[in-house]
Amino acid sequence: MNVAIFAESDQLLQPGLRLPAGAQHIRAATSEGLVTLDPAGQVVPAIAERWIVTDDGLSYIFRLRDSNWAGGDPITAEDVRIQLESALARLEGTSLGLDLSKVVDVRAMTGRVVELRLSAPMPEFLRLLAQPELGFVHEGAGAGPMVASRDEETDIVRLSALPPQERGLPAREDWEEIARPVTVRGLSGQAAVDAFASGEVDLLLNGGIASFPLAQLGPLSRGTVQVDPALGLFGLIFRERDGLLADARNREAISMAIDRTTLIQPFALDGWQDRSWIVPQEMFTRPFYPPERWVNRSMEQRVAEARRRIAAWEQANGEEAEITVGLPEGPGAVLLFRELVRAWRDIGITVRRLPPGQGADLELRDRLARYSSPRWYLNQFNCSLEIGLCSPEADELVRQSLTLRDPEARQVMLAQAHAEMMRAEIFIPLGAPVRWSLVRGAVDAYVANQWGVHPLFPLSQPAT
């Protein structure tokens, strides 16, 4: 099974805990944690063979399977405690670290039982534990279920599945005959699509908005383009608060001038969900705000109001309004930039494009959600991350919510945090993130899902 991922080839085996998408795939395949995700994105056992959750939702107790580290030593509860506490410490200062803030204690209860205690219930906690950054590594080797080797000449990563008995499962005599190796390479742009079209790879993963037009070109078999119904963030974050962007009302004007219903039309992407709120309304158990922002204004009225605000700023400052936008390379980014230019030209703003990380006023932020909670969205803009404009007031409300055990009170506080964040106009939401793959018909372990998760280990397994 030959796989390509939209990524730089030198990123696939990247160490540490700040992993790009390609490295996340390899880490998940070679370094399981307590739980993992199956092809449909559902939580399934990994190092833990089973678990219970106490009635109050504050304690998760895991029983480990009877398995060993790569060197032959048994995996013990004390090993897992050390691994988890180390990962939690090293994740401080990241958005995933903020997501894990409810963990208050990790205990090794007996030789094979581990308990994690939370400050308040978190229904999606198991999904968070399944993230590849929480996979276990002992003496430089992961806990499986696969082992990786690197072909230095071709930059291909070769993955081989461990025998069942080395993963704490019953032995199977025909294992070597039925388990197939998986090769993974990082490719970019047209080269990735060409490799699929020529038959060099059976599965191409992690396509985004910048590369999506490539999926519709070339001699591809019918039905091979798969688009995930992804959850997450897709929009523009404000990097600067100077000049035109110093006033939150001007930042709102730039956002309200975008017609999100037509933004995606050049991509011919069916089913895309446009958004004007940072946290989608459906993330809350009840609606705290309407499905769309500016519901009492037509698109014409929004453009007229935005134009008025920009003209007033130009008159007061004696200069023309201009902004720069940081976008990645790719034909989809060209289409997106063209639509933004059209929207902002109508309100009197000149737009220039810059590469990401080159000091643009606004920059594309495109992230898949790790779990379905308002808190994930709010954590992406925490001031401690220093990614752009932020709201200390919103951060404080999110922090206070960590100890609230009443779910309704917690929802109300997170809704208040969202309102503070929207009031600060720190982000221009555009819609759901776009994730697409090219899938050969022989690949039966691929399932489009809202997490954009497509694990590599199941590709090595027999269909029956």
Structure description:
By secondary structure, the chain is an alpha+beta fold. It has 14 helices and 20 strands. The chain has helices at residues 21-30, 77-90, 95-99, 125-129, 175-178, 189-197, 212-215, 248-256, 260-263, 299-317, 331-345, 374-379, 392-401, 407-424; strands at residues 2-6, 35-37, 43-45, 48-53, 59-64, 103-110, 113-118, 137-138, 141-142, 146-151, 156-161, 182-187, 203-207, 225-227, 232-238, 322-326, 350-354, 362-368, 427-429, 436-439. Strands 10-11-12-1-13-20-14 form a 7-stranded mixed sheet.
- Number of continuous helical runs: 14
Mean pLDDT: 93
Work out the helicity level: 25-40%
Radius of gyration: 24 Å
Strand content: 15-25%
Number of strands: 20
Sheet with the most strands, sense and barrel status: 7 strands, mixed
Low-confidence parts: none
Structural class: alpha+beta
Lateral arrangement of strands in the main beta sheet: 10-11-12-1-13-20-14
Instruction: Tell me the distance between the termini.
Output: 16 Å
Large-scale geometry: globular
